[in-house]
Specification:
By secondary structure, this protein is α+β, with helices and mostly antiparallel strands. 38% of the residues lie in helices and 28% in strands. The chain has one helix at 38-60; strands at 2-4, 7-9, 24-28, 31-36. Strands 1-2 form a two-stranded antiparallel ribbon. Strands 3-4 form a two-stranded antiparallel sheet. It comes from Hydrogenophaga pseudoflava (Pseudomonas carboxydoflava).
Length: 61
């Protein structure tokens, strides 16, 4: 089960069987296809949040 921006959905980890609860993975078409370093994942998620905030501000203008 993964959390994709607040949406929880089941995925296959057949391609990354070493993935455990709490790990960050790259998901494509319902499959985990790779793992990501937690520090890098947090940086990426922060950038996505910043982009979303900027887009939301533009839409409201």
């Amino acid at each position: 089960m993964v959390d994709l921006g607040g949406i929880r959905k089941p995925i296959s980890i057949a391609l990354v069987p070493e993935a455990e609860v709490g790990d960050y993975v790259i998901v494509h078409v319902g499959h985990a296809i790779g793992m990501i370093d937690p520090e890098e994942a947090e940086k990426t998620l922060a950038l996505f949040a910043e982009m979303q905030a900027m887009t939301g501000a533009e839409v409201q203008s």
